[in-house]
Design goal:
- 2 copies of one chain form a homodimer.
- Chain A has 231 residues and is mainly α.
- The first copy, chain A, has 2 domains: 20-70, Homeodomain-like (Arc Repressor Mutant, subunit A, Orthogonal Bundle), CATH 1.10.10; 92-227, Tetracycline Repressor, domain 2 (Orthogonal Bundle), CATH 1.10.357.
- Chain A has helices at residues 20-47, 50-57, 62-68, 71-90, 101-118, 120-132, 135-161, 170-186, 188-195, 202-216, 219-227.
- In chain A, α5 runs parallel beside α8 (170-186).
- The radius of gyration of chain A is 21 Å and the shape is elongated.
- Chain A binds a DNA duplex (30 and 30 nucleotides) through residues 19-22, 24-25, 28, 49-51, 59-63, 65-67, 70-71.
Chain lengths: 231, 231
Amino acid sequence: MTTARSKSGNPKRDGKAGNLRTEQKAQTRALILQCALEVFAERGFDGASVRDIAGFAGVNHGLIRYHFADKDGLWKAAVEFLFNRLHEEMAAPPEDAKLAPLEQTKSWIRRYVRYCARHPEHARIMVQESIRDSDRLRWAVKRFIKPDNEETRRRFRRLVEEGVYPDIPEHSFNYIITAAAQSMFMLANEMKYIYGLDVASDDVVDAHAEAIITLLFDHRARRAAVRRPKS
Amino acid sequence: MTTARSKSGNPKRDGKAGNLRTEQKAQTRALILQCALEVFAERGFDGASVRDIAGFAGVNHGLIRYHFADKDGLWKAAVEFLFNRLHEEMAAPPEDAKLAPLEQTKSWIRRYVRYCARHPEHARIMVQESIRDSDRLRWAVKRFIKPDNEETRRRFRRLVEEGVYPDIPEHSFNYIITAAAQSMFMLANEMKYIYGLDVASDDVVDAHAEAIITLLFDHRARRAAVRRPKS
DNA sequence: CTAGCTGCTATTCAATTGGATAACCAAATT
DNA sequence: AATTTGGTTATCCAATTGAATAGCAGCTAG
């Protein structure tokens, strides 16, 4: 990867932000954040050096202290960005409201698998942090993960109450579903070496979403599938 | 955690190894390996310092160079130990041979989930390494992961050919199953903070295995379960 | 047009790290 | 008993790291 910033970034005043310097500042901040996401995801909090992140963004490493106080602040800002983007990109389309709960869940799975494929950094960062049991993990759980989780829980409980889903433990449901969606993209490198397969392809992504739905959410389709073995 | 080695470890000659020094040496090596597994799992390759590992084992850090040449050698020795133990502990009991393929697979799932619960270091080490795309990953894939994977593949293909399982992509099957089994234990810290649940309990482990089987391998049980919603 | 604020850079510092070397000393060999 | 071997320790070294500080340059306000 090459450095991401050209010396002559001269944005004039196209945004409504008015002031040239504050606009420039916001841009720089966003750039550092982007690079921090990639580097944190690839090397973990300890493995990522602020110098690498700065170098990758093409800025002086002192700037990180200026914008984010310290490495911890940078990490939290990056994770905050990550979850905000998640919520934006995972918003259900309005027409989903008319669907039955199980169909809504399938739609949610498709969106989530595509999100995982598009942004593998998310799972990579959070898994590494979760393994380490840091203050950062507690912060992220309280602030983002647990609230998001409540939603998944409600979704699951509704399926069970409607009698369209087996009543397994909530936490098992949660980890089975999310891990099934994330893992292939989180472990894209491994998969590359095992299967020689690049996960970038839309076909692979969509087929994976459908596989999850077939195995975990679609009784009828599944029974049909297993009754008609290939050739 | 405290240091793991007492100064007065005096093993006499109880093993058949004969020579006192070589026996002592093997013990020290094994001790370092154990500690390396834990520290590598918790902090990743870069985050783990050989000094921490040595300190944790209660030995001088120079010893690691003597026994394993360098940090890379230590990591590979630890991973080799890890996979050898996996193969030992995952061996199918002889009576499994009489079962139908689907039942064999369920038995395999139960064994694997218990293994993941007993040794969460395994998934933790390998996931972190896979995220980073290192030489070590390529080494481990070629030497351990890919061969193990071939077996899972064969198991899956047999189920499909017998018409008892839907014909999804092999790599999707692989990542869905293994991730479903590993993730809860790999992410035990996160789960602790979200659910206040300790994964150490056998009940949680066995229930998770059964949940996976219900969702992914047991059509009849699943249909029965969804037909009788709780109260 | 000028003064000063501010986004940014250059440099320094102490701590930690992987690795290398030499000395040590108990066990093994003679 | 004397000597060699080899597992272990103590120390040193260069590189990297997070953080801190001082200073610069150009936009902005007056």
